[in-house]
Amino acid sequence: MKQWLEVLRNGLSFENPLTVLMIGLCSTLAVSSKVEGAFFMGIAVVFVLTMSNVLISAVRKFTPDEVRIPIFIVIIAAFVTIVDLVLKGYFPSIYSFLGVWIPLIVVNCIVLGRAEAYAYHNGVWLSVADGLGMGAGYLIIITGLAAVRELFGSGKLMFLGQTLVSFGAAYRGPNILLLFPGAFILFGFVIAGSHALNRRLAARKEGSA
Fold first, then answer.
1. What is the mean pLDDT of residues 173-187?
2. CA distances (Å), origin 79, targets 40, 75, 86, 185
3. Domain boundaries of the chain, sorted by first residue
4. Which residues contact 196 (CB under 8 A, 6 or more apart)?
5. Cα(104)–Cα(107) distance, rounded to whole angstroms?
6. Is 173 strand, coil or helix?
7. Over the stretch 3-57, which tens digit does the pLDDT of each residue have?
8. Which of 21, 39, 43, 106 has fewest C-beta within 10 Å?
């Protein structure tokens, strides 16, 4: 259980896919202008990453090394199709906002990378931890980034048609936060903060060892 929790924590901090491994950045910067879109994108990645990790790990001993990548893509595509249909049927506004980024989860570097680097070489139980940790790490960063961009860029925070926070009609925020340059600048601060936190956690871990 200790190893399982350690693998889970790695995805949240020391091996966070966005701030440490620096993969999956395109979708992060593209859909993080609205918190509801970013949240559902994060949930989709958590689901696809965890379920594909489980299935790939379960069949790894029967998967020929020469065709493993096509098999990975087929498995990932199956779960992405489930997400795509659920969003289209029950959350059409979210589906419209996310657009092509949902189908592109099939080739998202996070999902395919963890299938190749972890699930293919480890058991199902640890692969679940890796999928949940990496997915949750992605979800937290992309949702937090979107919350800051939307709140300070537009002056309000919306979720499924409800206003969660509003600075009032008189607020005029910096529109750059809603554009790609603002996303890059803000994400740079997120990376810096994440690295500082990881260094502190590593020092504390060494001190308690």
1. 90
2. 15, 7, 11, 33
3. 2-208
4. none
5. 6
6. coil
7. 999 999 889 988 899 999 888 898 899 999 999 999 999 999 999 999 999 999 9
8. 43
